[in-house]
Amino acid sequence: MKILWIATLMSMVGSWVLAVEKPKTETIQWAMTDFPPFILLSSDGANVDIQKSQGPFAEIYRELVRSLPQYEHKFVRASFLRAERLFLSHRHFCTLLLQDTPARSHYLIFGAEVARALPIGLVMSPGSYSKFQQYETADGMELTKLVQAGDFRLGVVQGRSYSNQIDRLIVRAKDSYRHVSDQAVGGLFVMLEKNRLDGVLSYYLEEWDHRKGREAGALKYLAVKEAPAYISVRASCEKTPWGESTIKEISKVVEEKNVRSRIYDYFQKSLPKEMRGKVREIYRGLLP
After folding, report:
1. How far apart are CA 74 and CA 64, in angstroms?
2. For the whole model, what pTM was predicted?
3. Distance between CA atoms of 44 and 66, rounded to whole angstroms?
4. Nearest Cα residue to 60 out of 270, 251, 257
5. Domains of the chain
6. pLDDT beyond 50 at 236
């Protein structure tokens, strides 16, 4: 399998991890990455100013700060790969926006569900879509056959999970581009627009946010046949006795503040009308 690696942050990972001092027990360090439009970070290097950050999850982090005054809260910008190393450093790290996967269960303890979202899709340019249109079915693009085709250049964010089903397919991709950085999806979209990629795995609102202000029809968002009905993200903390205790407190706030319902409301306000019904379906029976 030919894999082209860009590791723009990797050379800095070791020094950043060492630079994060082990805090006192009353501190929670939040590992976070840009995930527009859900959260757009305001930061000076790795240090995030959560008060100036934007998006619905920035407000939820601020809610956690107000609801857990017994802790000091520090916010650290990190790519998915760097975040994994921070969790393994056992320096009291937690986060809100990760899926519970078998690999992550080795170093994270998961708590309350924060949100459900539409599953991953495949974003393509009109040119790449016409070239690979034969792989489209009534249920979406057949990613299994695309990654086996040999000449399909797939863009993914290194370290991100796209669901257990999709993750297993990605490792078999013969020609893939794995971007290692914060804000990686935006960079992959630019590469797709320049015909350096044939497709990018993305969540619907990411592509929608990128599309704003751009020429209509420049990119095409397609369902993926093998994707699950929805993805679930949960609050999580490092797998230590401290993390096991702290995730219970965080989960209690997440549930008391009806975070899942607030994210549902955000989807209903932000998504196009044709997508809102799909979100209502995956939240059926969950809302107060």
Report:
1. 12
2. 0.85
3. 23
4. 257
5. 14-116+232-274 (3.40.190.10), 121-223 (3.40.190.10)
6. yes
